[in-house]
Amino acid sequence: MRAVGIDMHGGTDVLRVRRVPEPVVGAGEVLVRTVASSLNPVDAKTREWEIGTLPANLGWDLSGVVLDSEDERFRPGDRVIAMSAQIATGRGTWADVVSLPGDLLAAAPGRVGPEEAATLPLAGLTALQALESADVGAGDRVLVVGAVGGVGGLAVQLARHLGARVDGLVSRTSHVDAARELGAELVVDDPAELADGVYQVVLHTAGPHVTHALAEGGRYVSIADAPLPDVPGASKSYVEQSGKQLGELARLVDDGVLRLRVAADLPVERVGEAHELFEAGGLTGKVVLTFSPPTTGRGE
């Protein structure tokens, strides 16, 4: 079967679509034929930075169809989604067939296709867990920094669903309307336009730290790599695998609460081009990798 991997760190030229043995489903695991995945910042960092163990198969997001299952909750033919913490587990999802513990899987949302569903796992779990870390609730004023990014766009929608009033900071004027369409009220592209001390929660997903807008005693949560600002109680939120929470997110998609966004989809053979498009920035949706149906066997 095909899998996208690296033998060294570097630019997009180190990406290889290579042939590897198909995994064997283990106890409590589910074997999934990958239909689509999506790119996240961690994928580019793993490729470029000196992190993780080499050689490595890449990918965190999974949208596919069950082939075999040692978990009674899933049966062959089920459409599923999952997030695999590739750096920690070594189980990359950019492969024709992936075997993962059943606890990481959830039924895919029926309202969208597999390409859109592939944009949900890592970004959705990151947004949900960060908002939970910030204890966002009804009536809170929330500022999402990076409000049209993969995580930020979902965070805007989730915070509104929790009853918060949500504003957004974006990186360019052309993104203002996109953030408003997701439910943000006030949207600006210049931090200086934000009033001082008005937000109970600032969720920092990318870009500059905006500390002046945080109310006294407010909660400042960041998912970015940059060091935390010197703000009392500021904290990081690191995404964790959870099929249960992923199922909650899928139901919100089916209920029309969450809108998923695809900016471009490319076949896995064009993974280098997908990375270049992703790293160029300026997108208002995610870049998706698609896997053509196998022509022989299950993953070939």
Explain what this protein looks like in three dimensions.
It comes from Actinomadura harenae. One of its GO terms (molecular function) is oxidoreductase activity. Residues 10-289 form the Enoyl reductase (ER) domain. The protein is α/β, with parallel strands linked by helices. It folds into 2 domains: 2-120 and 260-290, Quinone Oxidoreductase, Chain A, domain 1 (Alpha-Beta Complex); 123-236, Rossmann fold (3-Layer(aba) Sandwich), CATH 3.40.50.720. Helices cover 23% and strands 28% of the residues. The protein contains 8 helices and 16 strands. Strands 3, 5, 6, 7, 8, 15 and 16 form a 7-stranded mixed β-sheet that branches. The model has no long low-confidence stretch (mean pLDDT 96).
Overall form: globular
Poorly predicted ranges: none
Termini separation: 5 Å
Output the CATH class name of the largest domain. Alpha Beta
Strand content: 25-35%
**Helix segment tally:** 8
Percent of residues in helices comes to 10-25%
